[in-house]
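User: Teach me something about this protein's shape.
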Amino acid sequence: GTKIKCNGESSCYRMKYILDDTSGFLRCDGYKSCQSADIFTGRYVGCYGLSSCYGALIRMSGNQDIECHGESSCFRANIDTDRAVFVNGMRGAEKATISATTLAVQSFLGISRATIDSGDRNSFVSLYGHLSGKGATLICREGSKCTLRCYGSACKGMDYICLSTDLNNCKLEPSQCSTGIDTVVNGIDCPTFGTTLKEKEYDQEEDEEVLYGEHLEPLDYKEDMEMDAELFGDIAID
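Assistant: First, the predicted structure itself:
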């Protein structure tokens, strides 16, 4: 099958990639290499570079997985797949929207402030990294069966919203976390478990302190707009 590698900076920027066969792969290795791309495929998709799949729309039709390996690699991405999403990069899928049958997050702040939505499928979510799910929301909808498995501090500051009329469809491990009484069970931080979906409010100063610290910097959104203006000439920069 065809193997496509986007190695250079912005090399596949705003690319439209539609290939529904399952052979070959798409790898985005360069800085912002597949930023804002529209990807519909049955092939493996690997986002390895810094901010490589930033803001991309990724829809999967086959039996291959998606991997967000680079730092902020799937930041603000919109991902929909019947297969698995693996997030290994620091802040790898921050502020992303993800619907998948399996989601495994190994990294620091891996899905921070992201929305994980079961949609019309069953969903199994495992969080391992330090503060992986801080500020994130997992929504388990009516008709879905979901499991959230937490390790260490991974689910601290996360919301788990069960919209099913049968709460047994929304499993939480450790199970004691679902009572809402304990915030820590056997050294594992519990998420907030609820049955009502509401808009979240964030403390920007607190977020920046936790997310950026001394060694991290916010992504430069003005830089993105300047790139668009240079390429397309349709955006005004203040």
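Now, about its shape. The chain has two helices and 20 strands. Residues 161 and 196 are 6 Å apart (CA to CA). If you'd like, I can walk through any region in more detail.
User: That's plenty for now, thanks!
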